[in-house]
């Protein structure tokens, strides 16, 4: 079997066989600098040692038609900067390499041989292995002992699961510091500034009235809360009409009063998880969420829907008052990474209203819109509608997983989303990517959490 050689995520082994005896390890080329004019009368003083670039000579013979293989290899090697190079006999490490020199070929009859010279500018190999290190409680702090057995500095990723509410995270080592949140927020939650008014489905009531996100959605059916794969989800139970375009059921929640006895939230944050994942091509279904005033005026709403009865294309749409479309995206509601609403990707979603500013979330990034008409609108109700297209059944024709997976709502009494105490709730997972220096909370970017001066130290 030919040695696998992947360059820039493309397999060269389809076009060549690496010749016997090849090894990617030729040793690290070091250069030592000595200091002349030393005060010592013997020899010179040591200055420093640096890694030099290195080269790897890889002899090979062509596979199949020489001209076709030669052209294919040249296309793969045509890069403008070093790319990842992985040899199959050492899959646990890789180089950042770029081809060097010309690709000269010796041909005898129908056989062809050549040599690719790989230039490794930084002169080192990188390990693909990842190791877990866990914190232990010492003197009131969580302490993590990280051991790097390699020869070079390595990035460190962190995952922090909060057992209770916190407003600040500090990671300190001899090499640097990472600080997230606000230190002054660490000592408790100020409920007069920000209050969580509900978490879960308990306050939702069956509602067979008008779906204000889209009044054409019928509401004859019934929703229920049931266990699916260990998760409590809100789902369509059945009983829906069959005469309309979208037929389903609906539940409406009247938002509780705050600690001062006032109802309505002009500024609010709502975190939701929407599980929308097909199991077969041509399945259909939809779910919507609408934030309403006491007069049933739509402040903002969102619809995830799939009416494609042959393929596997779904839509997500956001609306302002008057069913004005803000944004529309198409996606494939599969079990893979292209679908943000499956279990693998977390089903995460949220809404933030600050006066006239509305912030929505889509596939790892936020979008903000200023909508003047919503500035003084106060949210008093939330409607959840889940349904099926036309008269199609709820078995093989229905989106396999069409559920609301979770919902919680917080009222903010401040004009801006700033200095909200205890930004990290119990159960929140904060992930820090050491290489990209990005921070995520429950899988979503947390750009405003980093404190200036954080340097994401390597070890």
Helix-strand layout with pairing:
Elements (H helix, E strand, L loop, with lengths): L4 E3 L2 E2 L4 E3 L11 E6 L9 E7 L2 E9 L3 H12 L5 E5 L5 E8 L4 E4 L2 E10 L4 E3 L8 E3 L2 E3 L14 E4 L6 E6 L2 E6 L12 E6 L5 E2 L11 E11 L2 E8 L7 E9 L12 E11 L7 E8 L5 E9 L7 E7 L3 E8 L16 E7 L2 E6 L2 E6 L10 E9 L11 E12 L16 E5 L4 E4 L2 E2 L14
Parallel strand pairs: 19-21
Antiparallel strand pairs: 1-2, 1-7, 3-6, 4-5, 6-10, 7-8, 8-10, 8-11, 9-10, 12-13, 14-32, 15-16, 17-31, 18-21, 19-20, 21-30, 22-27, 22-31, 23-24, 23-30, 24-25, 25-26, 27-28, 28-29, 32-33, 33-34
Organism: Mediterraneibacter gnavus (Ruminococcus gnavus)
Protein name: Phage tail family protein
Keywords:
3 domains, Elongation Factor Tu (Ef-tu), domain 3, 9-stranded mixed β-sheet, Siphovirus-type_tail_N, 459 residues, mainly beta, 34 strands, 9-stranded antiparallel β-sheet, Dit_BPSPP_N, 1 helix, globular, Phage tail family protein, Jelly Rolls
């Amino acid at each position: 079997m030919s040695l696998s050689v992947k360059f820039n995520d493309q397999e060269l082994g389809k076009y060549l066989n690496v010749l016997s005896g090849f090894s990617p390890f030729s040793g690290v080329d070091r250069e030592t600098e000595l200091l002349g004019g030393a005060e010592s009368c013997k020899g010179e003083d040591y200055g420093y040692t640096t890694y030099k670039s290195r080269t790897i000579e890889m002899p090979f013979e062509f596979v199949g038609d020489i001209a076709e293989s030669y052209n294919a290899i040249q296309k793969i090697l045509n890069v403008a900067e070093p790319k990842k190079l992985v040899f199959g006999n050492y899959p646990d490490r890789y180089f950042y390499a770029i081809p060097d020199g010309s690709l000269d070929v010796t041909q005898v009859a129908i056989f062809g041989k050549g040599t690719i010279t790989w230039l490794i500018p930084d002169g080192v190999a990188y390990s693909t292995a990842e190791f877990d290190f866990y914190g232990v409680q010492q003197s009131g702090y969580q302490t993590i002992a990280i051991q790097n057995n390699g020869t070079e500095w390595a990035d460190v990723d962190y995952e922090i699961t909060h057992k209770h509410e916190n407003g600040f995270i500090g990671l300190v080592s001899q090499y640097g510091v990472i600080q997230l949140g606000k230190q002054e927020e660490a000592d408790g939650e100020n409920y007069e500034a920000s209050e969580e008014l509900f978490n879960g489905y308990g306050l939702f009531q069956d509602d067979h009235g008008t779906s204000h996100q889209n009044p054409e959605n019928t509401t004859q059916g019934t929703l229920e809360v049931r266990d699916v794969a260990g998760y409590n989800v809100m789902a369509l139970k059945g009983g829906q009409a069959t005469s309309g375009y979208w037929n389903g059921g609906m539940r409406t929640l009247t938002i509780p009063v705050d600690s001062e006895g006032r109802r309505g939230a002009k500024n609010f944050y709502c975190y939701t998880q929407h599980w929308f994942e097909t199991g077969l091509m041509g399945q259909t279904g939809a779910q919507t969420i609408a934030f309403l005033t006491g007069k049933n005026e739509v402040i903002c709403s969102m619809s995830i829907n799939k009416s494609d009865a042959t393929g596997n294309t779904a839509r997500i749409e956001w609306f302002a008052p008057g069913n004005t479309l803000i944004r529309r995206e198409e996606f494939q509601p599969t079990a893979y990474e292209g679908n943000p609403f499956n279990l693998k990707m977390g089903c995460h979603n949220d809404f933030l209203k600050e006066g006239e500013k509305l912030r929505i979330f889509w596939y790892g990034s936020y979008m903000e819109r200023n909508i003047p008409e919503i500035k003084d609108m106060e949210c008093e109700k939330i409607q959840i509608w889940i349904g099926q297209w036309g008269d199609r059944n709820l078995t093989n024709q229905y989106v396999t997983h069409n559920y609301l997976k979770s919902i919680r709502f917080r009222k903010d009494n401040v004009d801006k989303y700033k200095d909200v105490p205890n930004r990290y709730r119990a159960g929140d997972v904060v992930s820090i990517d050491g290489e990209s220096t990005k921070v995520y909370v429950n899988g979503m970017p947390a750009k405003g959490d980093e404190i200036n001066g954080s340097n994401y130290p390597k070890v």
